Amino acid sequence: xxxxxxxxxxxxxxxxxxxxxxxxxxxxxxxxxxxxxxxxxxxxxxxxxxxxxxxxxxxxxxxxxxxxxxxxxxxxxxxxxxxxxxxxxxxxxxxx
Length: 96
Fold this sequence. Notes:
Strand content: under 5%
CATH architecture: Up-down Bundle
Radius of gyration: 18 Å
Helix content: over 70%
Structural class: mainly alpha
Order of helices and strands: HHH
Mean pLDDT: 94
CATH topology: Methane Monooxygenase Hydroxylase, Chain G, domain 1
Shape: elongated
Number of strands: 0
Number of domains: 1
Low-confidence stretches: none
Largest sheet: none
Number of helices: 3
C-alpha cells in the first residue's frame, strides 16, 4: 500500500486511466465486430443499403482506432494492423 500522498494520487490516476483505456479498447472491438457482421450481411444480401452500412461501420472503426492511437491507448502498429485487417475484409466483401 502506498505511504506518501503522491503515491496515493498516482494509484487513483492510474486506475482512472485504466478504466478509460478499457472503454476505448472495448469500443474498438465492438466496432470491428459490427464491421464484420455488416460484411456478412452484405454477402448474404448484396444491395446498396448493406453496402452503405459496411462503409459507415468501417469509417466509424477507423475513426475510433485513430483516436485510440492518438491517445496512446493502442500502439500505432497495433492500430495499423487492426485497420488493415478490417479493410482487407471489406475489400474482399465488396469486390465479390
